Each structure stands twice: as structure tokens, then as C-alpha cells.
């Protein structure tokens, strides 16, 4: 042990009775740390695996995987394996380990960010949202060897495929998924066509089948990606397919355009159709008597015009209703507005724009007793009136110049409907 000698001003080594005890304690602590260091990772891994398998995976299976599985893969996302979660979807990863507030998976099931998830189902219970948040905060670990039940079912031996079917699975289906899936999927189904499933492909679109087996020159799918027939595909601002990909599609169609059956795809399609039937039942259910009494379903009845004290102030039946309510409260009506004020009120109310100075002056100087009625009729006949009030119908029709929401693709011809 080192001690300072005040007489010699030097350090000297002096034996201490506590030295062996200190050394023994230090050795004991060191050994204990080594034991903890080797045991903790194993225990932590087992704990994480148990938590994920018992708490998180059942949520994914019950709430998410009907849409986000390896087969449907809506928005490009599957939640059936660790690799799929790490890859994310069309817009990138959905989980930021350690940070639930930046993780779209958490934000959407917690109803913080639209579109809320599950898309068509009930919101997740708070307990399940809290479990997902905890999982992400702890690093979003998907332990090795833990798979969803749906993924486990896919380990069956695949049935033998013809050369054309193998060409489709290995070469053509990835092209359709990457180049066509953004528009022709089960969600969006542009022109009535989805290329996500075998049944969708066989059903074709609004104008019938898109492929004539053995005849690419008569197949609209090939003709449009090969730029032989308009509208060229991919539609809009998309780049033309590389020649090699067009050649693969042509080769596939010439060989018979086989789309082999896929058990998982068919099961997912049956589940989707079952959900659609359930929704159809809700739409077709009988309307209850309570619902029939909702104000918009009740036939309007013209009430009698109330009797008022100051009859001279009534210019039309609406005035009588307003004046009756004022008199019941002991209130006096506001004085009549000046013509300058009145014309501004009418303009803003009917067309949403202010009057020009010359229009104000003309109205103020109009001696006709029906000047007000003439002004109202002129504005009702103007195009500006139609534009202002058509906005409400466009809102109901969900008009927009682009898709908005997740993809926000432009709608180049939408203005024709608007105009």
C-alpha cells in the first residue's frame, strides 16, 4: 500500500493488514462481473423471444397479417418474418428500433398518423398498442427461429411446375409486381384490373381479359407495355419497360401465359372475399326505426307562419320567423343595411367574391323598387355562382387533382370532370 512520509516527503510501501481483504474483494467483484456478462445476453435473448412470441406475434397474426402477408403484401409490406419487417413496404421501413414515435407501424395503430390501421377493422385495444410500443422501445427484436404460423405453413414441398409456369414465377411475376402493382392491385384496381392474384388476372379488367394465351400480338398487356397500343403502360410519367422485360412477357404469353395456382394466394383471396361479404351484409342490413327518424330522412313539413307584433317589418315569411324569435326574447331587429353593405353581403354569400366598385355604385343608384331582386337573380345566373356552390359537390365526390393519401399520384385528366 502506498503511504506518504511527511518527514522524507517521499512515498513508501508499508504493509497494511487490510491489503489482503481488499485484494480478495476486488477479485470477487471481477469474477462476478464476468459471470454476469456471460449470462445476461442469453437470459435477455430468451426473455425477448418469449415476449415477442407470446405478446407481439399474436397481434401481428390476428390484426395485421390478413393484409400484410407474403402473398397479398398490401402497400408492399409483409409482417410475417423478421426480414420482411426490416425491409418495410413501398415507403420504406415501418419500424425504427427504439423510437416508436418515428415508427409508422406504431403511429398508425395508435391512430396518430393516417391511414389508421387496421384499415377497415376496429382500432386495436390500448393494451395491444402499448405492447407494440414497448416492443419497439426495447429494440423491435424479432428473434431468430421465430416465425408466424402463416410462414410456417409455406414449408410444404411445391408441386411440379411446367417451364412456362417457372418462367412466370421466376421472371414475369416480379416484373408485374414491380412495374404494374402500384396501380393494378386489389386496393386500387385501375380499369378494373388487378395483377396481384391469379383470379384477378384471369378475370381481366373492364374491357375483358388482358392476355390471349399463345398470342402476344393480340394481348393488350403485351401490346401496351411494348408501346404498340395506347394507353401505353406504365401509365403517365412512368418509364417504358426495358426491352428485356418486354421480351420476357412476350415469351411467357407465347408459351401459354400460365399463372400457376398458389395455395396461400387462394386462401388469402378466400379470406378477402369473406370479409367483403361481411361488409356487404352490413350494407344490406335493414334500417331501424330509430335510424329512420334521423332528421335527413324525415319528410319536411311546412310550418305555419307566426304572427308578429310589428307586421310592417315583415317583407317575406322568413322575416316573420326571425322577428317572432326576436320578439319572444324582447329584442329589437338591427336597422336595415345600406345598399353598399347589402351588395357586399349578397356577393360574398352567393359567389364568394367582392363586388367591383362600379357594381356597387350602380346598385346604390338604381331607383327600381326591385333592385335587390334583380341583383340576386343576376348573381344566381352567373357562372361564379355555379363554381362557388359546386365546390360542395366536389367535396362529396372526393375530387382532387392527385390521389393524395399515401401515393399522391397525379390525375392528369381530373380537371375535365371539375370543369
Order of helices and strands: EEHHHHHHHHHHHHHHHHH
Share of helical residues: 40-55%
- SS-based class: mainly alpha
Strands side by side in the biggest sheet: 1-2
What does this structure look like?
With 419 residues, this protein is an all-alpha fold. Among the domains are: 104 residues, no CATH class; 104 residues; 37 residues, no CATH class. It has 17 helices and two strands. It has a two-stranded antiparallel ribbon. The radius of gyration is 36 Å and the shape is extended. The N terminus is likely disordered.
List keywords for this structure.
about 425 residues; mainly alpha; two-stranded antiparallel ribbon; 17 helices; 2 strands; about 0% strand; extended
Please provide a brief summary of the model.
This protein has 419 residues and is mainly alpha-helical.
Helix and strand layout, with pairings?
Blueprint: E1 2-5, E2 10-13, H1 19-64, H2 82-87, H3 104-109, H4 126-137, H5 149-152, H6 163-180, H7 198-203, H8 220-225, H9 243-254, H10 263-284, H11 289-292, H12 317-329, H13 339-350, H14 357-364, H15 371-380, H16 383-396, H17 414-418
Antiparallel strand pairs: 1-2
Amino acid at each position: 500500500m502506498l503511504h506518504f512520509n511527511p518527514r522524507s516527503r517521499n512515498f513508501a510501501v508499508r504493509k497494511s493488514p487490510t491489503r489482503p481483504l481488499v485484494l480478495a474483494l476486488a477479485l470477487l467483484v471481477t469474477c462476478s462481473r464476468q459471470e454476469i456478462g456471460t449470462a445476461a445476453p442469453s437470459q435477455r435473448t430468451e426473455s425477448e423471444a418469449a415476449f415477442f412470441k407470446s405478446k407481439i406475434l399474436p397481434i401481428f397474426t390476428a390484426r395485421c397479417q390478413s393484409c400484410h402477408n407474403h402473398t397479398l403484401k398490401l402497400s408492399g409490406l409483409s409482417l410475417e418474418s423478421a426480414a420482411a419487417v426490416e425491409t418495410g413496404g413501398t415507403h420504406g421501413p415501418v419500424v425504427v428500433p427504439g423510437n416508436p414515435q418515428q415508427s409508422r407501424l406504431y403511429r398508425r395503430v395508435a391512430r396518430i398518423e393516417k391511414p389508421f390501421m387496421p384499415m377497415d377493422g376496429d382500432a386495436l385495444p390500448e393494451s395491444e398498442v402499448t405492447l407494440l410500443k414497448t416492443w419497439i422501445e426495447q429494440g423491435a427484436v424479432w428473434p431468430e427461429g421465430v416465425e408466424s404460423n402463416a410462414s410456417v405453413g409455406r414449408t410444404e414441398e411445391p408441386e411440379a411446375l411446367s417451364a412456362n409456369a417457372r418462367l412466370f414465377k421466376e421472371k414475369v411475376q416480379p416484373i408485374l409486381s414491380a412495374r404494374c402493382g402500384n396501380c393494378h392491385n386489389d386496393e386500387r384496381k385501375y380499369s378494373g384490373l388487378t395483377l396481384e392474384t391469379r383470379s384477378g388476372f384471369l378475370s381481366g379488367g373492364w374491357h375483358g381479359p388482358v392476355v390471349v394465351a399463345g398470342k402476344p400480338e393480340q394481348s393488350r398487356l403485351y401490346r401496351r407495355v411494348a408501346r404498340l397500343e395506347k394507353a401505353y403502360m406504365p401509365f403517365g410519367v412512368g418509364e417504358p419497360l426495358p426491352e428485356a422485360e418486354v421480351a420476357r412477357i412476350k415469351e411467357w404469353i407465347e408459351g401459354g401465359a400460365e399463372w400457376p395456382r398458389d395455395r396461400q394466394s387462394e386462401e388469402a383471396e378466400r379470406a378477402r372475399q369473406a370479409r367483403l361479404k361481411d361488409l356487404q351484409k352490413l350494407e344490406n342490413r335493414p334500417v331501424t326505426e330509430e335510424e329512420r327518424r334521423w332528421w335527413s330522412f324525415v319528410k319536411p313539413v311546412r310550418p305555419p307562419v307566426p304572427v308578429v307584433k310589428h307586421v310592417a317589418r315583415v317583407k317575406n315569411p322568413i322575416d316573420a320567423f326571425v322577428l317572432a324569435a326576436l320578439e319572444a326574447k324582447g329584442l329589437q331587429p338591427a336597422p336595415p343595411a345600406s345598399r353598399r353593405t347589402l351588395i357586399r353581403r349578397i356577393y360574398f354569400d352567393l359567389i364568394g367574391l367582392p363586388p367591383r366598385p362600379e357594381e356597387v355604385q350602380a346598385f346604390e343608384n338604381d331607383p327600381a323598387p326591385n333592385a335587390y331582386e334583380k341583383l340576386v337573380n343576376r348573381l344566381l345566373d352567373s357562372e361564379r355562382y355555379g363554381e362557388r356552390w359546386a365546390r360542395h359537390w366536389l367535396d362529396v365526390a372526393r375530387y382532387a387533382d392527385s390521389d393524395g393519401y399515401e401515393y399522391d399520384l397525379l390525375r392528369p385528366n381530373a380537371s375535365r370532370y371539375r370543369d
